[in-house]
Amino acid sequence: MVYQITSGIKISVSTSFEGTYFKNYKLHYAFSYFITIENHSKDLVQLNSRHWEIFDSLNNPEVVDGEGVIGKKPVIKPGEKHSYSSGCLLASPIGAMKGFYKMINLNTTKTFQVLIPAFKLCAPFALN
Question: Which domains does the chain carry?
Answer without folding.
Answer: 2-126 (2.60.40.1470)
